[in-house]
Amino acid sequence: MSSDDSRERSVFLGLLPWPERVQVARALRTETVGGLVLLVAAMVALVWSNTPWSGSYEALREFHFGIPALGLDLSVQHWTADGLLAVFFLVAAIELKRALVTGQLRTPATAALPVVAALCGMAVPAAIYLATVAAGGGSAEGWAVPMATDIAFALAVLAVLNTHLPSALRAFLLTLAVVDDLGAILVIALFFTNDLNPAALGGAAAGLVVFYLLQRFRVRGWWWYVPLGITIWALTYNGGVHATVAGVAMGLILRCARDARAGEGASPGERAEHLLRPVSAGIAVPLFALFAAGVSISAPGLGEVFTRPEPLGVVLGLVIGRTVGIFAGTYLAARFTRARLNPDLAWADVLALAVLAGIGFTVALLIGELAFPDPADAEHIKAAVLLGSLFASGLAALLVKRRNRIYRRLWEAENRDEDADGHPDIDQHSTGDPGTRTPGAR
């Protein structure tokens, strides 16, 4: 490996290799569209639950169906949270493994920074929540609620702003969100699990071993994996562990490197991601939002978000904790590891994305429901998640729009220079990214 190659891989937020840029662009397009669908679903839930027809919303959300003999007689809300979100976490796990095996996180120098940023972005909001409830005499059960970014919502905000920000920054946001989403699901598995059923968990573990062996021996065919995946999911649910953990486990087992000897055009992980990402972004997450975001809004209820310690801790954790944690984690990793910030980029870009990462929705609502089983308490936490995400998105919009104007002016200036000298910049036109060549952008 040459020293130039080593330096290129250790530059954080630098220009990604072409295959990586194509993969990230595809993911961003789907997640952005899915974010807009998610936004519509959340708005429908809020409006529906605050109209005279709110009773029909509650009746539909609590409607039960399934197979009671298999322990799967669940409400519509639980099917979306335990079932459909498993698809969301399966796709997230595939994305993370692909980045670790063949993507920009395959070396420690490039993996360190987003991972450290994600961990700090989880720890600081949790600490702020705990400090808030300790001062107000509240419950510490919700410490994990403000820990994760909703990537679909965050990318939807970027899409609405029509941003000119560099694609590498968006790729960082995607990686950061995947890492802390999986960190949140690990928290769910460790801290929000009770009434374990060892026999069911043993069956789920055996199913995962079979899943691994099928991958190991290059067995292909959906008829092997779909029934096996559903069985693993059902056993995990009955084992007392949140069923979304099954999606994470299967996603991390799927092989994400192509077998050149077998002439594979795409790895099993790539094929699964290609098929399931639209389902996750366009169906699974919006349906979860539809049945999780329905909160009764009233002036006294909104006032309690700022007077009760638990919802106040969630708001502060999302708006302040996520920003401080991610920005500080990024700075410390760039300062004390081999990763470094690309000199063409500014720390103001990182700050804008750190604020944007305070938009917590899908995972925050999921953890809120697990941490506060009482519907009345859960309502206040949901309202806090929605308000905190709204504050974070508003502040991020101001920062991102400012950066957007700067990058647009630089791009327009480069285009004028190009037109003047008649020599187009090959790198600029090959990447299509106006933000990758902006020396001194501040």
UniProtKB/TrEMBL annotation:
<keyword id="KW-0472">Membrane</keyword>
<comment type="similarity">
    <text>Belongs to the NhaA Na(+)/H(+) (TC 2.A.33) antiporter family.</text>
</comment>
<keyword id="KW-0050">Antiport</keyword>
<feature type="transmembrane region" description="Helical">
    <location>
        <begin position="311"/>
        <end position="334"/>
    </location>
</feature>
<feature type="transmembrane region" description="Helical">
    <location>
        <begin position="108"/>
        <end position="131"/>
    </location>
</feature>
<keyword id="KW-1003">Cell membrane</keyword>
<dbReference type="InterPro" id="IPR023171">
    <property type="entry name" value="Na/H_antiporter_dom_sf"/>
</dbReference>
<feature type="transmembrane region" description="Helical">
    <location>
        <begin position="346"/>
        <end position="368"/>
    </location>
</feature>
<feature type="region of interest" description="Disordered">
    <location>
        <begin position="416"/>
        <end position="442"/>
    </location>
</feature>
<dbReference type="InterPro" id="IPR004670">
    <property type="entry name" value="NhaA"/>
</dbReference>
<feature type="transmembrane region" description="Helical">
    <location>
        <begin position="76"/>
        <end position="96"/>
    </location>
</feature>
<keyword id="KW-0739">Sodium transport</keyword>
<feature type="transmembrane region" description="Helical">
    <location>
        <begin position="173"/>
        <end position="192"/>
    </location>
</feature>
<keyword id="KW-0406">Ion transport</keyword>
<keyword id="KW-1133">Transmembrane helix</keyword>
<keyword id="KW-0813">Transport</keyword>
<feature type="transmembrane region" description="Helical">
    <location>
        <begin position="143"/>
        <end position="161"/>
    </location>
</feature>
<feature type="transmembrane region" description="Helical">
    <location>
        <begin position="279"/>
        <end position="299"/>
    </location>
</feature>
<comment type="function">
    <text>Na(+)/H(+) antiporter that extrudes sodium in exchange for external protons.</text>
</comment>
<feature type="transmembrane region" description="Helical">
    <location>
        <begin position="33"/>
        <end position="51"/>
    </location>
</feature>
<dbReference type="Pfam" id="PF06965">
    <property type="entry name" value="Na_H_antiport_1"/>
</dbReference>
<keyword id="KW-0812">Transmembrane</keyword>
<feature type="compositionally biased region" description="Basic and acidic residues">
    <location>
        <begin position="421"/>
        <end position="430"/>
    </location>
</feature>
<keyword id="KW-0915">Sodium</keyword>
<protein>
    <recommendedName>
        <fullName>Na(+)/H(+) antiporter NhaA</fullName>
    </recommendedName>
</protein>
<feature type="transmembrane region" description="Helical">
    <location>
        <begin position="380"/>
        <end position="400"/>
    </location>
</feature>
